[in-house]
# Entry
Amino acid sequence: MQVVKYMFQPHGDERGQLVALEELKDIPFRIKRVYYMYDTVSNVVRGQHAHKTLEQILICIHGSCKIKLDNGKEKKEVLLERPYEGLYVANNMWREMYDFSSDAVLMVLASEIYDEEDYIRDYDEFIRFVKSVER
Ligand code: TYD
# Structure
């Protein structure tokens, strides 16, 4: 399983840094939704679900956190700690977010609007779903 991390181009000068993200250029899909998590309580594990169609880019724009990706066969852990790196999370991928630093802000760019129907929140159901789409 390949972890796809995007390194965005910071436009730095003597005033500081700026990162600009454009859909279908820096981000591989049209961005229909942006949300972010902050003030995450320590030891909390967020996510713990997969999506049937949604694609996302996760950017820890402040602080750090870890992401576990699981495609049903393999698991990978990724540390996000730079505001110019983005983790691509495909559909049919179980994800968990944890080890948030107290100052962490995790921003998510999403390819679809919020749709509870697209979620798989049960791990066994996720495994069954992955096997069914493989066939
Ligand atoms: P939840 O799915 O529990 O977040 P996580 O996957 O990070 O654990 O979402 C928390 C709440 O926010 C829940 O009540 C649904 C709501 N929500 C929206 O209204 N819109 C959104 O785009 C998202 C991601 C969540």
Remarks:
- Residues 23 and 30 are 5 Å apart (CA to CA).
- Residues 33, 35, 46-47, 49, 114 surround thymidine-5'-diphosphate (CB under 6 Å).
